[in-house]
Amino acid sequence: MKNFRIEAAIVALGLALMGLFIKNGIYSLSTRDRVVSVRGLAEKEVKADHVIWPVIYKTAGNDITAVNAELTNASRKIVAFLRRGGIKPADISTGVPQINDLWSNDYVSNARNRYTAQVTVTVSSKEVDKVRSLMPRLGELMAEGIAITRDYSATTQYDFTSLNKIKPGMIEQATKNAREAAEKFAKDSESKLGKIKSAEQGLFTIEDRDSNTPYIKNVRVVTKLEYYLDN
Fold first, then answer.
1. Cβ count within 10 A of residue 118
2. How far apart are CA 98 and CA 134, in angstroms?
3. Which of 26, 123, 139, 215 is the most core-located residue (most Cβ within 10 A)?
4. Calpha distance 75→93 (Å, rounded)
């Protein structure tokens, strides 16, 4: 009889523990099902730190030798203008002159000039402000007989290349904003914010702030986080 009582007590204790484990397990599962998904946004305006500026000169004529000499003279004067403006020689490159023979084109008739030609001098520099200060001064080349052509297919390009320097701070800010949203949700639902279930960093995007100031960029990142909600 004594042994029977001990065995019964052990069985009862085992059933009680099993019930407790089942209860805790069910509670744990139900808790894990209660999550809140939030997004955090961080934006930052920055100045472009690199510029590519193509300066194009075009001309036309019937003497190919004279046309080529004009291109050479124009590119030399453009480079000299840029050097006087403080642009480093390493930041200046002169493209190969492009000369087209219109009379050899069956689709062009009655062309006044046989040859059309152009040369492009390109500035690629990190001194964005210095380059921009020279743009309004292109008219100075007119005094030297050089009329610069505006070509919409070769526009000035501004880039921001220092993203890695601002990434950590922006991710921190986006994560902070996401947590604040999650805490507000938890409070409104009379819950407590638990641990992070998952986190996902979105892609960084860099865009012009607007069409009038392409040298000012808007950097943006969105993070997605999921938190457990506790009772």
1. 19
2. 25
3. 123
4. 10
Query: In the beta sheet, which residues pair with residue 52?
Result: 124, 157
Token pair of 115, please?
A: 């040859």
3-state secondary structure the chain: CHHHHHHHHHHHHHHHHHHHHHHHHHHHHHHHHCEEEEEEEEEEEEECCEEEEEEEEEEEECCHHHHHHHHHHHHHHHHHHHHHCCCCHHHEEECCCEEEEHHHCCCCCCCCCCEEEEEEEEEEECCHHHHHHHHHHHHHHHHHCCCEECCCCCCCEEECCCHHHHHHHHHHHHHHHHHHHHHHHHHHCCCEEEEEEEEEECCCEEEECCCCCCCEEEEEEEEEEEEEEEC
Q: What is the pLDDT of residues 79-92, one digit of tens each?
A: 999 999 999 999 99
